[in-house]
User: Fold this.
Amino acid sequence: MRILIVTHVVRKNDGQGRVNYEIVQGALAAGHSVTLLAAEAAPELLDHPRVRFARIAPSRLPGRLLQYQCFAWRCGAWIRAHRDEFDIVHVNGFIAWARADVNAAHFVHHGWYHCGFYPFRLLRGFYHAYQVLYTLLNIGCEKWAFRRAEVIVPVSRKVAAEVAALGIDTQRMQVIYNGVDVGEFAPGPAERARFGLPAQPFMLLFAGDLRMPRKNLDTVLHALAAAPANVHLAVAGRLHHSPYPALARSLGLAERVHFTDMVMDMPALMRSVDAFVFPSRYEAMSLVLLEALSAGLPVITVRTAGGAEVIDAGSGIVLDDPDDARALTAAIVRLASDPGYAGRLGASARRAAATLSWQVMAERYLALYEQVHARRRASAWPARARASVEQQ
Assistant:
């Protein structure tokens, strides 16, 4: 097949970009050719003889709103000019003013806006007003894009429900979970000293954007304050402008919370801790949660995190309310006080992750491409036959 993938970036160190990177790798391994319509792509992909890179330069207009719209217009124009060159056009959410065969829904602004934890208010100042308008515009654009795709691929059942709330028929959806590198993220020897972590305590790990209240580190810190003193927390994420070191000090946790800043070797950090805590207030399908499962860590998360749906009672603890610090404390204490229970959860988590590898994910996308392509050829055959008869 001749496949066109439209996205902003295709590279390994980006969430959505990594998903598309692995789809490209799977497509190339299967013998297909791939064109990338993007602003940036990993150099190792561009060296492949069956990869074509059509670069859409980022706009210099002020603000994400205008920049994304400019990118979408340029992508739409390119697709319309080259549509006949491809068997499959795969886009990601609203990224182009053009129809598509497959639209992967990684994040739905309508779901974020109505989830109950949306932090912005129209009348709370210019920044808030801009964010609200940006979200509302994206809601309209995403609805337009989903209605003009043959198949929508939500990355979780949670996202599928959010797409359906836009009035999109569920019969046009096929959920495909994101993947994880089960070889890279695997249990192994701890390296706590490398990350400045003490050797003895039961060590939790929180990883995410430390500037966003959506990730919910504040509830984790309040829960930790009520947990026994032998429970510590490693926090991985960029510290610049983060309010959480000050909050940790105010809660008397300065000696028990270890801020590592950005960590480039996340597999090694995950091998060095005892459990992963991720009570995000809103999440579509987090890669870091899947990585923790693959690393064999018992996971504490919440239902508002899309990845929670791949966790059962045997592979993790899923709480109902992301802001319930008392319930989170109880879950932490249960893991820290029962090594056998924590070990069983971790082993089950590793087995669950084996069904969510990048290879499995890519194969599911390619199978979907084949189905869509086969339907198009079948529908085109009667038209070609009629044209042949008319010519005779």
